[in-house]
Write a structure and sequence with these properties.
Elements (H helix, E strand, L loop, with lengths): L48 H6 L5 H17 L9 H9 L13
């Protein structure tokens, strides 16, 4: 699996915070904040430390760029979704959530 051995690409350059930069795209964070030592990607959202640190300063074009890279990373790893959050897993285990339910955020 060559994707494990590659160095993550640099995060897009983050502009200085500004009130006129549109920020309508929510963070992909799922609350599982652990960085894999080999890939240097977060196990929950697949972002790098740099992408996580700069997210608040990114405008929507930069956020879309990061989200596209996350999908590429997941595809290279053979995963089409982020890891199931503990809250979602608990609801699945309790039978209060249909396993086929999709979406980017836990209901």
């Amino acid at each position: 699996m060559s994707w494990l051995m590659t160095t993550p690409p640099p995060a897009p350059s983050a502009p200085a915070p500004s009130a006129d930069v549109p920020r309508t795209i929510a963070s992909p964070c799922v609350g599982v904040c652990q960085i894999d030592r080999e890939t240097r990607f977060c196990l929950g959202c697949w972002r790098t430390i740099e992408e996580i640190a700069h997210w608040a300063r990114y405008g929507d074009p930069q956020r879309l760029e990061v989200l596209e890279r996350l999908r590429e990373r997941q595809g290279a790893a053979g995963q089409d979704r982020r890891r199931v959050t503990r809250r979602r897993q608990a609801r699945l285990d309790a039978g209060t959530l249909d396993a086929g339910t999709t979406g980017s955020r836990d209901p």
